[in-house]
Specification:
The structure is a homodimer of 341-residue chains.
Chain A lengths: L5 H7 L4 H8 L7 H14 L5 H8 L4 E7 L8 H16 L3 E7 L1 H5 L2 H7 L5 E5 L18 E4 L10 E4 L1 H15 L4 E5 L4 H16 L9 E3 L6 H14 L5 E4 L2 H13 L9 E6 L12 E4 L2 H16 L7 E4 L2 E3 L11
Parallel strand pairs in A: 1-2, 1-3, 3-4, 4-5, 5-11, 6-7, 6-8, 8-9, 9-10
Antiparallel strand pairs in A: 10-12
Chain A binds a DNA duplex (30 and 30 nucleotides) through α2 and α4.
Chain lengths: 341, 341
DNA sequence: GCTCCGGTGTAAATCGCTTGACGGCTCCGG
DNA sequence: CCGGAGCCGTCAAGCGATTTACACCGGAGC
């Protein structure tokens, strides 16, 4: 009536316990004949290894811990969703499992981030889009635990990271808007991440290089959750203080969608009066009215690479990682030439 | 240099290994004095129990397995996101972990759903919004493993479930549209779930009860992923075949958003020409143009209850579960009186 | 003086699997 | 005929906890 164990299988086909274990782990020391016999027995008996026991004995939990920031209902966020989907799929291919954790205040205060590793709950930790305030991650600089930042980095820390190329994004956005003729562009930036700050700064320099004046490139913070609400509020401030803006560049698509709503509520039209563009290319971007021009970030692929890298780091087949993925401009309907004045 | 184990702690404060374990598990057999001494030592030494070892010995993984359908990038779906957030939060409060799995073809073919339980990877499985085709779940009818359907049910199976009240949703939607004066209403239904079918059928009867003719309530399937694209296509069909519709009721908000885009592309206005409403009240619903009228489903709360229930089922403190949560109408801008003809 | 007993703590068996050391066997060259 | 090298398996010691049965001890009751 009980679940069969490795012992039952061993007894059943007259080999030792270790033999069964070796078969389970595809060890070449076992001959094909024996292997086949054992596998057959396993199948017949409906044997399945107990994951806890394997993890205990092998010192590998075959689990990645994915840590996301403490935002409202973060799992409902497409940005994280895409990355997490990528991680999940790659995990499966490696027969790994994925555990999700949220970096809430308790998580940080109680130093859960190190507890997870110390209690052997995971082989490696992936931090998705942490913020500039996550100074506590510095602990991982010289920790023995495998660790990877996903779509973020810290300028002065020696931490593994993998992310998309935010500076290239910024250049593409600048080229596009400047190319259309815009010279006064408002920026809605997320400033709670280094990537967000890089994006803002790179955008400003790229515009200046192409002939804009710095004072015609005002920026406002979009709030720390990069949400539509934040974009709405930021756009209201921008348009209030600079009614002559002809374009708004938002740090992500949701900020852009919020901004579009604001423009709409002021009785203006996108893109006739104000052009708006975002970043990420979330699925929703194609279904706004008008459809959103944006920079496509390969977030799903980023997740896959991240999972791959994490496993390699754990196995010590990789010592460090500092990787940057390319991005791409997607032109839709929300950007156009500035209105004639 | 190594992580301390329960043995090290025992040696350190001169008690037996079992004593430390009992302290760890808050067993009242240990006196306050000893308990304090042990806890102090643990703290000082930075002891943390090895989760694998505990799970092996105690036969509880303290893990819930959450299974979501195999949709494109499902983690990026707000509907699932909300439910999963609720589950996660409640798990944490119970010191449980949450594992995510996707019910893809491999998952079903290889009967992973039973393997997860048999390999002791999880204490209980939660299936979120499975579809009418998931006949394989019937296996759980008389399985010894704790199991819970979240926001779905099967009419002829004896399975535990917890979900929102789709029939009440349908009645509220019907009352609202009929109350505004609509008599010809197109329906975009998700028909790959029993809850979706219930919703459609309950809506039709509620309308008929209030004086509509059945032939004025055409319905079209919105596609199995309940996406904006599906809503767009369905709306095109509906409006093509029934140009005199004055309202469209969609089975969820994303279908509704797709339908809105279709109406817009035909040069019509919402709600002046066509009223549109959705279901769920995802955050985005407040930020469409015009803002979407919808039925609020308490998905986050549903997730919390589901996690709670799952743990009780595992502990056998609960034998079964058939729970239904109430819903609420949210009126915004996308519905209004029908155009005068 | 002896038994019974509640309150504390311990010993030892288990949970199910991994893995490095070792051992028998066959085959080969010298 | 002996020694060494592969090949194929087995032994047995962990991995780090839980848990049940039992032991000790001082005091109450008779």
């Amino acid at each position: 009536m009980k679940r069969p164990t490795i012992c039952d299988v061993a007894r059943e086909c007259g080999v030792s316990l270790s033999t069964v274990s070796l078969v389970l782990n595809n060890n070449p020391r076992i001959s094909e004949a024996t292997r086949a016999r054992v596998l057959e027995a396993m199948d017949r008996m409906g044997y399945l290894p107990n994951v806890q026991a394997r993890a205990l004995a092998s010192r590998s939990s075959r689990t990645l811990s994915v840590v996301v920031p403490h935002l409202n209902h973060v799992f409902a966020d497409v940005y994280f969703g895409e990355i997490v989907s990528g991680i999940y799929d790659r995990c499966l291919e490696h027969h790994y499992r994925m555990m999700l954790d949220i970096a809430n205040p308790r998580f940080v205060r109680q130093r859960e981030y190190v507890n997870i590793m110390r209690s052997r709950r995971a082989d490696c930790m992936l931090f998705i889009a942490s913020s500039v305030n996550d100074e506590y991650l510095r602990e991982f600089e010289d920790s023995p635990f495998p660790f990877l930042l996903v779509n973020h980095y810290f300028p002065n820390m020696n931490l593994n990271y993998i992310m998309v190329d935010y500076r290239q994004s910024a250049r593409l956005a600048a080229e596009h808007l400047i190319g259309l003729g815009h010279r006064k562009i408002g920026i809605i930036a997320g400033t709670n991440t280094y990537t967000g700050r890089d994006y803002r700064d790179a955008f400003i320099s790229a515009c200046c290089v192409r002939g804009c004046r710095r004072e015609d490139l005002p920026w406002v913070d979009g709030g720390k959750d990069w949400s539509q609400e934040g974009g709405f509020r930021a756009a209201r401030i921008l348009l209030g203080e600079h009614p002559d803006l002809t374009a708004i560049m938002a740090g992500n698509d949701r900020l852009a969608i919020g901004a579009m709503r604001c423009v709409h509520e002021r009785g203006l039209h996108v893109p006739q009066d104000v052009s708006i563009m975002g970043v990420d290319d979330i699925p929703q971007a194609a279904y706004t009215t008008p459809a959103l021009t944006t920079i496509r970030h390969p977030l799903y692929e980023l997740g896959r690479r991240a999972a791959e890298t994490a496993i390699l780091l754990f196995r010590e087949e990789l010592q460090s990682c500092n990787e940057v993925l390319p991005v791409q401009l997607v032109v839709r309907e929300s950007t156009g030439t500035p209105p004639a004045r």
